[in-house]
Design a protein that fits this description.
single chain, alpha/beta, Rossmann fold, Helicase, Ruva Protein, domain 3, five-stranded parallel beta sheet, 20 helices, elongated, binds adenosine-5'-triphosphate, binds magnesium ion
């Protein structure tokens, strides 16, 4: 079998030699370049699986090399070697598309992990398995962009911050990034940062030694170790208390953790994904989230717009959800009337895709077995458009029928808001009590 080929770019002979020896022992063939010019020439001549580059080189910056490689038709992964503590450069490199970073002095265990992850990216078997059908549906431009961003970030180790309203698909996106990454055969560990009591947090994250505190009767591995080789997903990351933010920052920076009561630090190999429905940048401004941590978890940001801003996704999502729910109920997936679909596209969806799922689940329980009609949706009255008027569509029938539907909604809403006080409801609608009562009768609402 052909040995993998790795390009090492560094102007310090000692480091080059150390890296070469380590990689050769891993049965990897290496080439070295001491400057950017030579590196570029080698990249033209040979097909490498990975490029490992220093940042400060005699004829330029390692970032240039990232740009060159990223601009080529089949970009190979690039990992950067950064000076100790220089996270800024590491972050900049990853924003430009670097696969990962390693800081000097190079920890060989960390280096081996990095190399193995990178080499998996060019393994044809693994790549084929990863190319699963996208479960993230939607035809809007933003969904297309999100899918392509997922494909791209799945090939790197950079931390990603996924933001979006509740129910918009943040966790689904995180799972897809993991599934398509070189880490897919290891665990995806999700943790809701708002759900763990403060006093247990450190031990949950980093584990503890037996007897390290009252109640620590056995040794416990933390979530970082549970996610070893895989992905750690910090959901609701805005809820992380400040003291833990400091510890998390250290763990990310050093790629090492220290369980409570343990003296030794343990190297960990995880990829960090985080999600929030809050505005973290704003929280940084007000001091409730650490700026340095924000900077490190937000190397790549992926925003999912609310469903109301990507109406083009609604038909595909609706169909998919109906098919899924019908399969569970062992029925044929029903169709949706045009009016019902139009109403969904008008609706505000404060709960996004999860709310759409709930609405359709309820509709399936109510519809007459043929077609889901507008009324079966029982759309909640949203505060943005209280009446939630559906746009006129032919299957409403005549204009008269359509207006009657809206009139009915307006009257019910007014009664509800005025606690069924007819005089007050009439006043709100600008009607006399007589005329209001007449309408109630006409619409059969007077019971
Ligand atoms: N584009 C999509 N295609 C298919 N299913 C989707 C899509 N977006 C979201 N969903 C589904 O909607 C539901 C909610 O998604 P998810 O749990 O990922 O949202 P979330 O943003 O993490 O929500 P929360 O903020 O409440 O934690 C899930 O069942 C998910 O599978
Ligand atoms: Mg979630």
């Amino acid at each position: 079998m052909k040995k993998p080929l790795v390009l090492i770019v560094d102007d310090e002979p000692d480091i080059c030699e150390l890296l070469e020896i380590t990689l050769n022992r891993m049965d990897i063939q290496t080439y070295t370049a001491e400057n950017i010019r030579t590196a570029k020439a080698l990249l033209q001549q040979k097909h490498f699986e990975l490029c490992l580059t220093d940042m400060k080189l005699p004829d330029g910056n390692g970032l240039d090399l990232i740009d060159t490689i990223q601009a080529s038709p089949n970009p190979i992964p690039v990992a950067v070697i950064t000076a100790h503590g220089n996270m800024d450069t590491a972050i900049l490199a990853m924003k430009k598309g670097a696969f990962d970073f390693i800081s000097k002095p190079v920890d060989l265990a960390v280096l081996r992990q990095l190399i193995n992850s990178a080499l998996k990216l060019s393994d044809p078997v693994v790549t084929k398995e990863r190319r699963i059908r996208h479960e993230l549906l939607g035809e809007s431009l933003s969904m297309w962009e999100i899918r392509s961003k997922i494909d791209k970030v799945a090939r790197s180790q950079a931390p990603v911050l996924i933001s979006g309203e509740s129910g918009s698909g943040k966790e689904l996106v995180a799972r897809l990034i993991h599934q398509q990454s070189s880490r897919s055969d290891h665990s995806f560990v999700a943790i809701n940062c708002g759900a763990i009591p403060l006093e247990l947090m450190e031990s949950e994250f980093f584990g503890h030694k037996r007897g390290s505190f009252t109640g620590a009767v056995t040794e416990k591995k933390g979530l970082f170790q549970a996610a070893e080789g895989g992905t750690l997903f910090l959901d609701e990351v805005a809820d992380l208390p400040l003291p833990l933010q400091v510890k998390l920052l250290r763990a990310i920076q050093e790629k090492k953790i220290r369980p409570i009561g343990e003296h030794q630090e343990i190297p960990v190999d995880i990829r960090l994904l985080s999600a929030t429905h809050r505005n973290l940048a704003e929280m940084v401004q007000t001091g409730s989230f650490r700026q340095d941590l924000f900077y490190r978890i937000n190397v790549i940001d992926l925003h999912i717009p609310p469903l109301r801003d990507r109406k083009a996704d609604i038909p595909a999502l609706t169909e998919h959800i109906l098919v899924k729910l019908s399969a569970v109920n062992k029925i044929r997936p029903p169709a949706l009337s045009k009016t019902a679909l139009a109403a969904l596209q008008q609706y505000h969806f404060p709960g996004n895709v999860r709310e759409l799922e709930n609405i359709l689940e309820r509709a399936l329980a109510l519809y007459d077995g043929k077609i889901i009609e507008y009324d079966d949706l029982n759309l909640p009255i949203s505060t943005h458009n209280k009446l939630n008027c559906p746009e006129y569509a032919p299957d409403f029938g005549s204009l008269e029928d359509y207006l009657e539907k809206i009139e009915r909604k307006a009257i019910i809403l007014a009664l509800k808001e005025n606690k069924r006080d007819k005089a007050a409801a009439a006043k709100q609608l600008g009607l006399s009590v007589r005329s209001f009562s007449y309408r109630l009768k006409k619409l059969n609402l007077d019971s």
